[in-house]
Amino acid sequence: MTSVKEQEAIKKLMVFLQEWDSAHKVARSHILDNFIKSNDGKTEPELELEFSQGASLFLARLTTWLRMTYMYSTCLNKLLKSIGIFLSAASGRRYLIEFLEIGGVLILLEILGLNHLKEEDKRESVKLLQLVADAGRKYKELICESYGVRSLAEFLATSNSAEAQGDVQVLMDSLGRGNPKYQNQVYKGLVAVLPCASPRAQQLALQTLGVMQDMVGQAPSVLVEPVLGVLRSVHLEVQYEAIQLMKALMAHEVRPALLKGLVALLTPPRKKAFTPRLDLLCASSPIRGLSHCSVLAKESAEVAEELIQLKVVHGLMVAVGNLDYMASQRHASISLEYFVHTFPFVEECVKKALGHTLFQRFMDSPKTWYTKMNPVQAEELSSNIVDIPRDMARMQS
Hints:
Number of strands: 0
Number of helices: 25
Radius of gyration: 29 Å
Mean pLDDT: 90
Strand content: under 5%
Largest sheet: none
Helix content: 55-70%
Protein name: ARMD1 protein
Low-confidence stretches: 271-286
InterPro entries: ARM-like, ARM-type_fold, DUF5578
Order of helices and strands: HHHHHHHHHHHHHHHHHHHHHHHHH
């Protein structure tokens, strides 16, 4: 038999549940406020004590209301936070299972794709997905099997909330660890984010790809074009993460394609008259991308040799000769200085192309010498035909 105290507790629970069942939106909102305030951070035993061993009865009501109303944003933020109290409760694995059994993961993922919902609601959804992922490998697999990677990647690329994007990055990183079955799917999902219009999303995706690269091992060829694309970014934080990833990729089979593409960025397409490629060389384009060649070259003599064989010297001289974009000239000149100082044969070729006087100016002040070039000298640079034999770099390094 139950004691009088237990009977009173059960009666209190039944009254509370009846109050919830009969309440409308405003009243339920107040109930949720009180629940969040009183129970945040509680463990499973503490929640059961609060609800007279019937906490699951309230959780079931929360999840039912979520299923019925999530598309209409009815107290959605408070509802998700309340469910989060159950999912985050220490020793509360059974709450998680109960939530998953009603299709909780699918609902959370669908919330991310509903354009009319608030960013803060979507962020709460991501937080709950993180709690699911934290429960272990099979739960990470469940998220991935539910097309979670695609939903998260799309939300990362389109979200206007830096905080929400940060939460997505943490979750994607979590899904990429200890989840061998779907590790490559997470990796490719992050690659798919790179062409998006959000610099913050690009930065976070690049960071996570860099962390995952050692775990994944091989780098797919589909990675080449998106990585080269982000090198065009005007945002320095994006370019920094891109070059860090490029460094990691130099040890993989995609290196030749990446280096070839990087050198191609330096040279505008041939036209009837020389016209600078605005998306690559103007002040609002990736002028700092011109220095990436020397950054990679300094990391490895092998990479430097390959860049020379790919005619990087020609490309840098073309960029230096582009009088319309001084910032591009500066970065190209600094990169050119590295190759000239490192490879005697490059020095000889560049000196021959520039002539003694102009070459001396370059050597004396690589950061400013191009400001004194006249149009004729600039045209000679932009149309230079410097061509270093493929095996010469290796001989002279």
